[in-house]
Amino acid sequence: MKHDPLQLATLIGSRICHDLASPIGAVKNGLELLHLSSENSRGPEISLIEESSDNAIGQINFFRIAFGMGSKHAELSPDRARNILSPLFNGSRVVLSWSIETNITRIEAQAIFLSILCLETAMPLGGEIHLGRQKDKTTVKGSSSNFSQNPELWNSLLQPSKRHDIAPAHVHFLLLPLICQQMEKPINLDQSADNKAVYIRF
Fold first, then answer.
1. Each residue of 105-162: pLDDT tens digit?
2. Are residues 97 and 170 in the same domain?
């Protein structure tokens, strides 16, 4: 029986996230034990390790949704979504706002997280990303004074049946349209007249 390529890709993503989470979690637990056992465990080197482990855990939580496999019936609450996204964008060049106040399906959350990655890639100087929903239509809006011009990346969203030469760092542009096809929702891509806003809708 032939395996579905998308299912295989998300299984690989889930496996990698699972295998990375255990050792990083062990580092985090070890730091907590160190704090409890020693009064001199707050030096700059320990703080650096703690910050790095927190960042790694945050990335894994994000990638588990964006690239992993989840239950078709699972849902993500607004609070859970914000808890996953907030650590990644605190202090970054991109300001993120989530205004969806209802639970969303796991696969829709995956499409949103991949859209965030696409817009973040296109905003090298930073900007704002806003997530909203009206009825059954989700909009992920990116605003920036400078969007990078790479037609191949945007074409890969709209023409998933064609082959596109995409670097590993941009694999989310290939995965997003496949996820939207699985949801049976077409992607709409629009840009404002002044080229300072890009809208991904599905």
1. 999 999 999 999 999 999 999 999 999 998 889 999 999 998 887 888 888 888 877 7
2. yes
Give this prediction's pTM. 0.86
Rg (CA), the chain: 19
In this structure, are 131 and 198 located in the same domain?
Answer: yes
Is the domain of 16 the same as that of 99?
no
- Return d(Cα 201, Cα 186) in angstroms, integer: 8
Domain around 127: 91-202
**Strands of 137-143's sheet, edge to edge?**
94-98, 127-134, 137-143, 197-201, 188-191
pLDDT of residue 103: 94
Q: Looking at the 3D structure of the chain, how many domains does it have? A: 2
Closest by Cα among 175, 57, 164 to 114: 175
**Same domain, residue pair 104 and 38:** no
Which of helix, strand or coil describes residue 176?
helix
Q: Which of 69, 89, 185, 197 is nearest to 135 (CA)?
A: 185
